[in-house]
């Protein structure tokens, strides 16, 4: 799967997951004592212990949702939800924040899938209909400027603009890492470089579509 397809796929799946968690069946008790993902921030000590924010988050997810380990593949779901309120729904925001910057993190993609499977299990148990997760193609148009250079754009009324925002954040984050290693920051023309790089990759992607 290409870099751009991965971003679109993550975005679509996380949107559907958030909708599923928001409307979980009433058979799951209401409560906000077990899941605390609102205003979540990784513990700096755990980030240092596990060497990365995503590994520290993985530990939190394991302790929260599967303290005794995931169920085996023969089970109908990897784990079950004990309650539902905003503290649970906010886990999607936590996953989104990291996957927007690092969209190809397989570990967190797996957590999104497991949470989805758990939600589907509860919906089916309550005989509720489960929505289908679809990834819609994003129409990207290429324009030729008077200078002869190509420029890419998307319709403002599509989800493409949000996906391109995710792409931009990712590219800028990569430049930030590069410049921090050199003891500098992105500012002035450096931001312009990020936009040019973004445009070049979008044009290349659109030509392949």
Describe the structure.
By secondary structure, the chain is mostly helical. It is built from eight helices and two strands. The protein has helices at 3-22, 44-50, 53-65, 86-89, 91-101, 106-125, 160-181, 189-208; strands at 140-144, 150-154. It has a two-stranded antiparallel sheet with strand order 1-2.
In short:
With 209 residues, the chain is mainly α.
Which helices and strands occur, and which strands form pairs?
Layout: H1 3-22, H2 44-50, H3 53-65, H4 86-89, H5 91-101, H6 106-125, E1 140-144, E2 150-154, H7 160-181, H8 189-208
Antiparallel strand pairs: 1-2
Strand order of the largest sheet: 1-2
Report Rg: 20 Å
Q: H/E order of the elements?
A: HHHHHHEEHH
Name the overall outline.
globular
**Largest β sheet strand count, sense and barrel closure:** 2 strands, antiparallel
Number of strands: 2
Strand proportion: under 5%
Query: What is the terminal separation in angstroms?
Result: 13 Å
Average pLDDT, rounded to a whole number, is 74
SSE class? mainly alpha
Tell me roughly what share of residues is in helical segments.
55-70%
Low-confidence runs of at least 5 consecutive residues: 132-140
Discrete helix count: 8
What keywords describe this structure?
two-stranded antiparallel ribbon; 209 residues; mainly alpha; 8 helices; 56% helix; single chain; globular
């Amino acid at each position: 799967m290409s870099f751009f397809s991965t971003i679109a796929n993550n975005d679509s799946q996380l949107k559907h997951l958030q909708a599923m968690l928001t409307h979980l069946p009433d058979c799951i008790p209401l409560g906000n004592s077990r899941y605390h993902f609102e205003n979540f921030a990784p513990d700096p000590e755990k980030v240092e212990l596990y060497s990365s924010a995503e590994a520290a988050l993985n530990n939190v997810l394991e302790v929260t949702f599967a303290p005794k380990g995931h169920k085996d593949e023969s089970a109908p779901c990897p784990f079950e939800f004990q309650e539902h309120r905003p503290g649970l729904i906010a886990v999607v925001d936590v996953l989104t924040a990291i996957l927007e910057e690092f969209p190809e993190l397989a570990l967190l993609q797996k957590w999104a899938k497991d949470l989805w499977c758990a939600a589907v299990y509860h919906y089916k148990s309550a005989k509720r209909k489960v929505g289908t997760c679809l990834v819609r193609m994003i129409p990207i148009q290429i324009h030729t400027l008077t200078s002869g250079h190509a420029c890419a754009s998307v319709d403002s009324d599509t989800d493409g603009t949000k996906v391109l925002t995710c792409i931009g954040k990712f590219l800028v984050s990569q430049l930030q890492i590069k410049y921090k290693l050199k003891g500098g920051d992105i500012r002035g023309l450096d931001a312009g470089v990020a936009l040019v790089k973004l445009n070049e990759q979008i044009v290349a992607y659109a030509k392949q579509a």
